[in-house]
Amino acid sequence: MHDSEHEYDEFDEEYKSKTDVKKEMHQLQDFAYKIIKLPKSQRSKLPLDDELKDAMVLADKIINKPEALRRHVRFVAKLLQETGTEEIQATLDFMGNKHQQASAQQSKLEQLRDQLISDNSLLEQTLSEHDGLERQKLRQLVRMAGKEMKAEKPGKQCKALLAYLKEHIS
């Protein structure tokens, strides 16, 4: 056996084919274009270094010039490759996930409201867990919402209880 075959195997672990390099670059370019297309308010929340911020300002100026924008996207992709995209991607994921977080919080509060209406023993536990709640106001809202539920007409008081919980528990 030749030693050159063994050396080739070591080299092979770090070797990237031209196709792989191109795929990575195209992914970075797509990512750069996605960042450029973001509204300025969202882009300002991203952890970009000064060079990338300057590149974004320039991108805003040439957004209506397709060929210049294409070249600039390549430049931004190269900058992203140097700085890394993990932190920026994590921030984008978090920003895109706000709706799901709000929905989860809303459903959690709705469950708490329903539990409070059905089980008065949870009232004391809820009051002890959340300092901002007023005992008298919470009891009154729970009692009125319970009356509505018994009459099978949930409406104003259930919404008022949910609004009160949303205001004081977050």
Can you put this structure into words, describing what you see?
The protein has 170 residues and is mainly α. It has two domains: 3-96, Diphtheria Toxin Repressor, domain 2 (Orthogonal Bundle); 99-168, PSPTO4464-like domains (Diphtheria Toxin Repressor, domain 2, Orthogonal Bundle). 80% of the residues lie in helices and 0% in strands. The chain is built from ten helices and no strands. It is elongated. The chain starts with a helix and ends with a helix. Residues 3-8 have low confidence and may be disordered.
Low-confidence stretches: 3-8
Q: Please count the helical segments.
A: 10
Shape: elongated
**SSE string, helices as H and strands as E:** HHHHHHHHHH
Radius of gyration (CA) equals 28 Å
CATH architectural type of the largest domain? Orthogonal Bundle
Mean pLDDT: 84
- Helical content stands at over 70%
Total discrete domains? 2
Strand content: under 5%
Report the top-level CATH class of the largest domain.
Mainly Alpha
End-to-end distance: 69 Å
Sheet with most strands: none
Number of strands: 0
CATH topology of the largest domain: Diphtheria Toxin Repressor, domain 2
Structural class: mainly alpha
